[in-house]
Every structure is written in C-alpha cells, then in structure tokens.
Design brief:
By secondary structure, this protein is of the alpha/beta class. The chain has helices spanning 12-22, 58-64, 113-121; strands spanning 2-5, 37-42, 45-51, 74-79, 93-99, 104-110. A hairpin with a 4-residue loop joins strand 5 (93-99) and strand 6.
Length: 122
C-alpha cells in the first residue's frame, strides 16, 4: 500500500508510470483521474493505481466496490488517500511530492516493516 500525496501536477502519476515501465510494462499508463482506478500487471505483480481526487464522500468509495481490490495480493498506489481517510488501511509507504521553483521534490517514508523492506530493496 503506497500513498501518494501532493498537489495536482506534482508527479504522482508520472512516478507510477515510471515504476510500471521499470517493471517491464509497455502499454499506455494513463491517469485514473476519471476512471478512479486503473489495473496493471507487470513484473509478475498485480498493481492498482487509484486516483481519489474526484470522490465526494465515503459513500462513493463504498458503492464503487473498491474494497475488493484490497485483497492482500495487489500492490496499491493511491493518489489523494485523504479523500477517504477512515476507509483505507494504513500505508506501508508514503510519498509526499512538492513542486518547487526549480524541480519536483519527493519525500519517501516507510510506515511498516513491509514498507521498510521494500525501500531497502529499492
């Protein structure tokens, strides 16, 4: 579970695209801004990219059936997790993006043992 925090245009989807490409995915990687969820398979992994920016409330989350994706088998990238703070499991890794005058900055932190293991292997 990877939470992606940052303003619009900060690089959240670009990071997911880069990770998918590094895992060998050759298809189009698009922002799930309108679909809310894009599923991928790459590098022997099932990945899910969520963009929750357009959610208005927790009811929309529940009615979309997204909970089924949290089955312990998927790698989950979640943009705008603060839209449904009481419904998501805790993140293993959180990445905070910031737009500066000269570049984009990313601050990565592990919150769990799984997250720490992933970052150590990264």
């Amino acid at each position: 579970m990877i939470y992606l925090h940052g303003d619009l245009g900060a690089g959240k989807t670009t990071l997911v695209r880069g990770i998918l490409n590094a895992l060998g995915y050759t298809g189009r990687v698009k922002s799930p801004t309108y679909t809310l969820l894009e599923p991928y398979q790459a590098g022997g992994l099932d990945l899910r990219h969520f963009d929750l920016y357009r959610l208005n409330d927790e009811y929309e989350w529940e009615s979309a059936g997204f909970r089924d994706e949290f089955d312990g088998r998927n790698v989950l990238f979640i943009e705008w997790p603060e839209k449904v703070p009481n419904l998501l499991p805790a993140a293993d890794i959180e990445i905070d993006f910031a737009i500066t005058n000269l570049a984009r900055d990313a601050n990565i932190r592990a919150n769990t043992k799984t997250g720490t293991t992933c970052l150590e292997r990264w």
